[in-house]
Design a protein that fits this description.
The chain is built from one helix and eight strands, in the order E-E-E-E-E-E-E-E-H. The protein has 85 residues and is mainly beta.
Length: 85
């Protein structure tokens, strides 16, 4: 989870990834505009292991950089978790 985004305030996050894979950004509210490593975000992309920068320039709410396959399989980091009984 990258943290809450205050509406219309640019926010930058430095991220270090250990596993090279396809990643995507998930937002829990409305429209957004973002860049990953200076390239406009338009969907899932392969990111190498190492340092990356995510810049969010518009939108509000929580944001997560997440493994793209998890999202494609229906997982959302914003859904409430079921409690095992």
């Amino acid at each position: 989870m990258l943290g809450p985004q205050k509406e219309n305030f640019a926010t930058s996050y430095d991220i270090d990834l250990a596993i090279p894979a396809r990643y995507t950004l998930c937002f829990d509210q409305g429209n957004f505009a973002a860049e990953i490593d200076g390239t406009p975000f338009s969907g899932a992309r392969f990111l190498q292991a190492g340092h990356h920068e995510v810049q969010i320039s518009a939108g509000a709410g929580r944001c997560a950089l997440i493994w793209a396959t998890a999202v494609e399989k229906g997982f959302s980091p914003f859904s409430p978790m079921a409690i095992d009984n």
